[in-house]
Amino acid sequence: MKKTLKRLVPVLCTGVLIFSGCAKQQAVKGDEAIAPSAVTQQAAPARVQAPTPAPQAAPATTALPSSAIKAEPIQSQPAPLTQKEVALAGALDKIYFDFDSDALSDAARKTLTENYAKLKAMPNVKIRIEGSCDERGSDEYNLALSERRAQAALKYLVSLGLPASRLSTIGYGEEKPAVAGHDEAAWAKNRRDEFSINK
């Protein structure tokens, strides 16, 4: 019996210590939860009796570190085209291609060089190069070929010194024939690049 009591006494003492420690922790937690609300209730009337002026907003530069501030670029509207520029842009000559080819012929290079001189004289004009094909070939093939033809003209104009930002391309395939017909004379006129003002 004495041996059993000797074994139970330490266990009971440990249990009492643990239980009393938990009770204190709960009481402290409860006191902490009550304390802020009591302080808030006491401080609230003081704020009502003595209102403070509304704080002024701080400038954005002081609120953010300078590394976080990004300047927005100023977008300037391009100057409207003059009648002369519109007329000159309308005077850009077409170039033509051989059957199933996007290679620039000597005649096409000469025409592009003349077009470059006109475009250099009107820096506000942006141009769209429109590639086209004759009616032979599938729609998908002709669309790709017409885009390659427009890209060939763009690359040549850029190599002459025209900024690429002033140029764009589109391929129409066989959708916009210049000449109606189903013979070589008509097809030769339809294998072309045209130049129009890009609005």
UniProtKB/TrEMBL annotation:
Gene: pal
Protein topology in the membrane: Lipid-anchor
A Pfam family hit: OmpA
PROSITE patterns for this protein: OMPA_2 (PS51123), PROKAR_LIPOPROTEIN (PS51257)
Top-level division of the source organism's lineage: Bacteria
Signal peptide from the UniProt entry: 1-23
Domain (OmpA-like): residue spans on this chain: 84-199
Organism: Geomonas propionica
Protein name as annotated: Peptidoglycan-associated lipoprotein
Localization, UniProt: Cell outer membrane
UniProt cross-references to NCBIfam families, sorted A to Z: Pal_lipo (TIGR02802)
Keywords: Cell cycle, Cell division, Cell outer membrane, Lipoprotein, Membrane, Palmitate, Signal
Family listed: Belongs to the Pal lipoprotein family.
InterPro entries documented for this protein: Bact_OuterMem_StrucFunc, OMP_bac, OmpA-like, OmpA-like_sf, Pal, Pal_lipo_C
